[in-house]
């Protein structure tokens, strides 16, 4: 396992001190503004359902009004689901005739690769977070646009169905169907089905990790005659950002140490309770940490935040994958908290995002950011 050095803020030396701020009794980086108020809401409280619906409507309106940066275009497609329903999916694409800007942080070679191989551009399936209770949020639209612009790839951000109406396995099934959609329509979408990344933060990390496990089993089945194989391509990599990986979260020290931090322990427990209310936690791919065999997974990047109840389970998952022979990069962000990257314009957040892009660049193009 490659454990990368912590990311320092602009002008900050390694080992810099953190100051106390927005999280009660917790010190976090001086340059971070602190978590938003919504992170402490008890989404499992039935009394909050009316307020939650208003919040959802607001978030969805923001997404419809989202104005991408120059060089990126956004459209939507409809994905047919296994139960006959349709799911909206945002598609972020580089402008066809956009001249690559010298940002000083990335040169992709995407166009050259497409010409040489005759295949399409790389892509990302972005499984968004939100505790399985919230739709896509503005920060996710902004990050998707940034990844598209810097990596010259297409990002697919599906609006999977969520709680309380749609517990597991529906969100995972929806994202699996999105993966199959990318494979089935790769040619018309002009993407390379062998260079699709899985990405997920928080609850989206649950889904991305679950799809990786499912895709591994599909890969094993592909050689068996008569198998019902829905996926014929394997993820190029998976990126898990402060992922929720274990419904037994109370067993980890970080869950006790940071129980009242940005994503409180009570919320996490309520999330898992509601998510798994219609199924067994041991059902395949729903709770990644409960999977006995984690070998044979794609190249993996895991990014825990220091002041997060999910820190230890993310680090434990990284260790388990490493012991199983998976190529793992673990980047722990000190002085940070769950959802810190919502402040996308913050210089420190941008530096962390740049490091994510560096890993994705190497994974997709075998080139690193200078």
Brief summary of the model shown:
By secondary structure, this protein is an alpha/beta fold. It has one domain (2-6, 19-365): Rossmann fold (3-Layer(aba) Sandwich).
Secondary structure layout:
Blueprint: E1 2-4, E2 19-20, E3 27-28, H1 49-64, E4 72-80, E5 86-94, H2 110-117, E6 121-127, H3 138-151, E7 154-158, H4 170-184, H5 186-189, E8 191-201, H6 203-221, E9 237-241, H7 253-257, H8 265-275, E10 300-303, E11 305-307, H9 311-323, E12 328-331, E13 333-337, H10 347-365
Parallel strand pairs: 1-12, 6-7, 6-8, 8-9, 9-10, 10-12, 11-13
Antiparallel strand pairs: 2-3, 4-5, 5-7
Q: Quickly give the CATH architecture.
A: 3-Layer(aba) Sandwich
Figure out the total of helices: 10
Biggest β-sheet: strands ordered side by side in the sheet: 1-12-10-9-8-6-7-5-4
The biggest beta sheet is recorded as: 9 strands, mixed
Unreliable sequence segments: 10-25, 97-113
Span between termini: 22 Å
Q: Determine and state the CATH class.
A: Alpha Beta
What's the SSE pattern? EEEHEEHEHEHHEHEHHEEHEEH
Helix amount: 25-40%
CATH topology call: Rossmann fold
Strand content: 15-25%
* DSSP strand tally: 13
At the fourth level of CATH, the homologous superfamily is Alpha/Beta hydrolase fold, catalytic domain
Spatial shape: globular
Q: Radius of gyration, Cα only, in angstroms?
A: 19 Å
Structural class of the secondary structure composition? alpha/beta
Total number of distinct structural domains: 1
Mean pLDDT: 87
Description of the structure:
The chain has 370 residues and is of the alpha/beta class. It has one domain (2-6, 19-365): Rossmann fold (3-Layer(aba) Sandwich). Helix content is 34%, strand content 19%. The strands form 3 sheets. The chain has a 9-stranded mixed sheet with strand order 1-12-10-9-8-6-7-5-4, with helices on both faces. A two-stranded antiparallel ribbon has the order 2-3.
């Amino acid at each position: 396992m490659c454990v990368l050095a912590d990311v320092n803020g602009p002008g900050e030396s390694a080992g810099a001190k953190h100051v106390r701020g927005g999280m009660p009794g917790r010190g976090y980086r001086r340059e971070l503004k602190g978590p938003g108020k919504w992170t402490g809401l008890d989404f499992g409280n039935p009394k909050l359902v009316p307020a939650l619906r208003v919040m959802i409507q607001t978030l969805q309106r923001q997404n419809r009004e989202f104005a991408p940066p120059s060089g990126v275009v956004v459209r939507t497609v409809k994905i047919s689901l296994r139960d006959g329903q349709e799911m909206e999916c945002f598609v972020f694409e580089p402008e066809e005739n956009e001249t690559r800007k010298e940002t000083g942080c990335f040169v992709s070679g995407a166009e050259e690769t497409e010409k040489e191989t005759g295949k399409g551009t790389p892509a990302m399936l972005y499984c968004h977070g939100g505790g399985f209770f919230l739709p896509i949020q503005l920060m996710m639209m902004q990050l998707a646009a940034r990844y598209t612009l810097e990596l010259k790839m297409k990002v697919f951000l599906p609006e999977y169905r969520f709680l309380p109406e749609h517990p597991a396995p529906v969100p995972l099934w929806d994202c699996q169907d999105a993966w199959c959609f990318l494979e089935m329509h790769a040619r018309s979408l002009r993407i390379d089905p062998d260079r699709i990344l899985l990405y997920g933060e928080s609850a989206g990390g649950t889904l991305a990790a679950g799809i990786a496990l499912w895709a591994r089993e599909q890969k094993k089945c592909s050689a068996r005659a008569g198998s019902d194989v829905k996926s014929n391509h394997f993820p190029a990599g998976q990126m898990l950002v402060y992922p929720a990986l274990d419904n037994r979260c109370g067993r980890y020290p970080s869950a006790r140490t940071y129980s009242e931090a940005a994503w409180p322990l009570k919320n996490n427990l309520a999330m898992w309770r509601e998510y798994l209310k219609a199924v067994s936690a041991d059902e395949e791919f729903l709770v990644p940490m409960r999977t006995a065999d984690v070998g044979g997974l794609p190249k993996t990047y895991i990014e825990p935040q220091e002041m997060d109840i999910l820190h230890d389970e993310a680090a434990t998952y990284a260790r388990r994958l490493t012991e199983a022979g998976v190529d793992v990069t673990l980047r722990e962000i000190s002085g940070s908290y769950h959802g810190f990257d919502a402040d996308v314009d913050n210089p420190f957040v941008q530096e962390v995002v740049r490091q994510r892009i560096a890993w994705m660049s190497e994974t997709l193009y075998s080139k690193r950011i200078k």
